[in-house]
Amino acid sequence: LLCYLMFFYVVVPCYNIDKGCDYMKPVTNQFDEILVNRHSIRKYKPYEMDDDTIRAIFEMALKAPSAKNFQPWTFRIIKTKAAKDKYSHLFVGNRTQYETASVMVILFTDTRYGSRAQDVYDKAVLNNLMTPENREKQLLNLKNLHPSAEDILKQGILNVGLIAMNLMLVARHYGFDTCPIAGFEKALAPAAFGLDHHEAVLA
After folding, report:
1. Which residues of 4-42 are buried (b: 16+ CB within 10 A; e: fewer)?
2. Rounded CA gap, 63 and 51, in Å?
3. Residue 38: how many CA atoms within 13 Å on its side-chain side?
4. Is the pLDDT of residue 3 over 50?
5. Distance from C-alpha of 19 to C-alpha of 174, rounded to nearest angstrom
6. How far is Cα of residue 181 from the mean position of the Cα atoms in its chain?
7. What percentage of residues in the chain have a pLDDT greater than 90?
8. How many CB atoms lie within 10 A of CB 90?
9. Do residues 24 and 53 lie in contact, with contact meaning Cβ atoms separated by under 8 Å?
10. Of the N and C termini of the chain, which has fewer Cβ atoms inside 10 Å?
11. What is the torsion angle, in degrees rounded to the nearest 10, for the CA atoms of residue 47, residue 51, residue 55 and residue 61?
């Protein structure tokens, strides 16, 4: 099995800063405002984030680039009180963030991302983003690659880091602040989340 116990990244959308209850409309499109004024928040105001807002944030964040467009990430979302109670034992530290955040988004890498090649390239051909000839060339190139487990995990870390940053910036675009969290009970995570053997805890 590949190592699950790397580091844990939690994105915590909080409250809309400027727009009251108008949560589905972006607060700002000014890139410098989004980038420079994003802050890691440790304590959050009470707010129940609706599923449509979460979906809108993910739809934009999923535009993140990834090696060969394999998008080697999976997610778990902790939102309800029942879910927070269930996974509370994983967060011995960072209690204030965990207890006050509206949403916790946990990121993993799918270490079988190479198996996605056929589907990814078939869709690219269907959408006229890749020629059939180039698809076959790329698939052949992949067959000739023999990366080590360590190299696969390194690729996963790099790619999941890209979408993690996207999630935080898009959340800010919608007026929500976030906080990346690195501390949790690593040895308990695979069993707690029921991870498949190919999912590694990265962020």
Report:
1. bebebbbbbbbebeeeeeebeeebbeeeeebeeebeebe
2. 19
3. 23
4. no
5. 9
6. 13
7. 36
8. 19
9. yes
10. N
11. 30
